[in-house]
């Protein structure tokens, strides 16, 4: 068994023992050497603060007054789990532009301490985790923290919002529902009290955020999923229709493995092309993603979406005719 399993087994044995347990017995139960038993006992006592009594001659057991109350710490993971957790922390810290690094610093220190104890003093090479942010937008960290607090504390939120599409600046009072991380950026899903409807707000466009004393209005999970996740992309609203896109055999090798939407329907055609169908509400983001594939993709249906793609391609081509 590995060290993690040995510590668990050692804890259970000492906790259940009415009399001191000898080192040879521990060697037999744990399947390890005498030196390993002593190292595990020292780790359990010194690092995990177990109330161990005894010595190598008489044997070891937990202090009867404290042993029943002692539990292994909640963050007690094996080396592989610690590696994965620290890698995830690096991913969040690096991809979030530092927004979460301050909040996660205490957790990272605890993880690194446990990892050092697992790895016999070897330094874990954090630089081996490489995260390349893609089109990440700058964000007010103070506003981000207030938005997150309002979501978790279930309180209403007031803020100024500058729409990216029009540049118009408005005041909003909302009941936050969810904070969403989508394509390296953060969005607030909320019930807008003035418009009496669910809306999604890009957090980097939120300013002068202020958490209010009033309790947030809770929207049922089913309604949130139907409105916010029913259509393609980040744009909310009930689906207006289904789009059918066909990718040539070269692009099919990528698209067939991609997740575009929870309700997508995909199949390979007889000639090797790949047909993808998915619901959409706003055509804007869907068109951008399809046009990203250039000549490898064709919108087949509906005709209105196909015509929008044709118009966008004509405008793009006109830029090169000057």
Automatic annotation (TrEMBL):
All copies of domain WCX, residue ranges: 241-314
Pfam families, alphabetized: HTH_11 (PF08279), WCX (PF25583), WYL (PF13280)
Domain WYL residues, every copy: 143-211
Matches recorded under InterPro entries: CBASS_pafABC_assoc_protein (IPR051534), HTH_11 (IPR013196), WCX_dom (IPR057727), WH-like_DNA-bd_sf (IPR036388), WH_DNA-bd_sf (IPR036390), WYL_dom (IPR026881)
Domain (Helix-turn-helix type) ranges: 7-60
Protein name, UniProt field: YafY family transcriptional regulator
């Amino acid at each position: 068994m590995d060290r993690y399993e040995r510590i668990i087994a050692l804890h259970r044995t000492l906790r259940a023992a009415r009399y001191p347990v000898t080192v040879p017995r521990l060697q037999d139960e744990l399947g390890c050497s005498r030196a390993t038993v002593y190292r595990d006992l020292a780790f359990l006592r010194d690092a995990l603060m177990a109330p161990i009594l005894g010595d190598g001659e008489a044997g070891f057991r937990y202090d009867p007054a404290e042993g029943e109350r002692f539990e292994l710490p909640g963050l007690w993971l094996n080396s592989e789990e610690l590696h994965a957790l620290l890698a995830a922390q690096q991913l969040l810290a690096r991809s979030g532009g530092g927004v979460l690094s301050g909040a996660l610093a205490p957790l990272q220190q605890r993880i690194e301490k446990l990892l050092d104890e697992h790895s016999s003093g070897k330094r874990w090479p954090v630089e081996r985790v490489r995260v390349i942010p893609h089109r990440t937008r700058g964000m007010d960290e103070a506003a981000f923290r207030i938005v997150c607090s309002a979501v978790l504390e279930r309180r209403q939120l007031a803020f100024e919002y500058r729409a990216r599409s029009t540049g118009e600046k408005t005041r909003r009072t909302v009941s936050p529902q969810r904070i969403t991380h989508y394509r390296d950026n953060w969005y607030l899903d909320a019930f807008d009290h003035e418009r009496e409807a669910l809306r999604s707000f890009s957090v980097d466009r939120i300013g002068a955020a202020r958490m209010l004393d009033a309790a947030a209005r809770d929207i049922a999970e089913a309604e949130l999923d139907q409105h916010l996740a029913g259509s393609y992309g980040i744009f909310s609203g009930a689906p207006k229709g289904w789009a059918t896109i066909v990718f040539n055999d070269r692009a099919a090798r990528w698209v067939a493995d991609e997740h575009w939407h929870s309700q997508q329907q995909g199949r390979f055609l007889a000639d090797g092309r790949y047909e993808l169908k998915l619901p959409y509400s706003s055509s804007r983001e869907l068109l951008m993603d399809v046009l990203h594939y250039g000549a490898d993709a064709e919108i087949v249906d509906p005709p209105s979406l196909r015509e929008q793609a044709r118009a966008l391609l004509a405008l793009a081509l006109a830029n090169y005719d000057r």
